[in-house]
Amino acid sequence: MQTDQIVRTFVEYFEERGHHRITGSTLLPPPGDPVLFTTSGMHPLTPHFEGRPHPLGRRLVNVQRCLRTTDLEEVGDPTHLTVFEMLGTWSLGDYEGPRSLDWAHGLLTEGLGIDPGLLHATVFGGDERTGPDTASLELWQDRGIPVELTVEDNWWSNGPTGPCGPDSEIFLWSGDTPPPPHSTPTGDDRWVEVWNHVMMRHRRLADGSLVPLPQRNVDTGLGLERLASLLQGTSSVYESEVFAPWRTALTSLWPLDEPSHRVVCDHLRSAVVVIGDGVRPAPTGRGYVLRRLVRRVLTVLWRDDPTRSLGDLPLEPIRHTLDRFRQEGDPTHVRRTLLEEERRFTRLLERGRQVLGRPRFRGPLDEEDFHYLHDTHGLPRDLVLSLRR
Ligand code: SER
Q1: Do the strands 191-204 and 20-21 form a parallel or antiparallel pair, or are they unpaired?
Q2: Ligand 1 nearest-atom number relative to CA 40
Q3: Which of 20, 104, 135, 143 has its CA 20 to 30 A from that of 206?
Q4: pLDDT digits (tens, 9 = 90+) for 71-129
Q5: Atom of ligand 1 at shortest range from CA of 158
Q6: How many alpha carbons fall within 13 Å on the CB side of residue 4?
Q7: Would you state the pLDDT for residue 71?
Q8: How does strand 83-91 pair with strand 210-223?
Q9: Which residues are 89's β-sheet partners?
Q10: What parts of the chain have a pLDDT lower than 50?
């Protein structure tokens, strides 16, 4: 099943059940939001969990692009990406968790044709503050889906304070042979999490205590690229349809081992989307996240061959990604932005090598040295460390 077809099936399924489609926001949260990037489909809806009415009603569905730097270290494994699309549904004080899980089960098995024997669920098992989520547990038992109870893994929040709640995660089996009896998501990583349902009914305060939200909400998010790759039978998201133009372009341009190839694919595609949303490389904030993505790509590329240049990137994968994310940007302009950052990084590395060659910096460096190198020469600590390796 093609990725666009998954999106259509998902959205129509929920529209038929009274949900209104809302337009996903860009990666940039509204002004005043302390978070750099939208990390989840629920993020732009936060005020509506707190009770502010949404103009389109209490049942919503959308496709939201998200960026997570918390997953950066995991990028390169078969399922984690820096920028990804999340299919989301919301009940804003309307229906409760079991109905949401029941619809999810219906969509996955009937709508998308997944064998129910390949599904597993996890449910919040309860802790000293909140009891177990028995309503979700019973729903899954009724549907014949195996359930694992956990505590930390089944509590979702978007930050240290704000709306949060117990969640129930749905996993899909990715193994080549049927799941062994008694295999569970925490014990076998061939179970891949695809869809999270958060029973968003608490607010955590700064002192860590929980108070009830004015209404009981359900917030769900499904990782599109992950689900697409599993439905397309590929062993990682990088082999699925959305990465095909990147794989084709990069394979002929720069021969890389698979782990490096994945990092380059993920970071370049993410950088394109970030630039497409209007961010430019900068020493702080969003621009710094973009800068780190581009510089990590260059570090990987130059390990084998320092003459490699982002100026050689074909426009096709850039164009494909901008289209996928419904962005207006001009691919040539995006490539130019990448190339300008490459030139800046080249100059910085040259300066770094010169400065670090001075006798003062030959021995071990202390905090004062790091401050001086950063403040006077613009050399961040991680760059200094990599140049001295
Ligand atoms: N907010 C939850 C998540 O991001 C469900 O949408 O996983």
Answers
A1: unpaired
A2: 4
A3: 135
A4: 677 788 888 899 999 999 999 999 999 999 999 999 999 999 999 999 999 999 999 98
A5: 1
A6: 4
A7: 66
A8: antiparallel
A9: 61, 220
A10: none
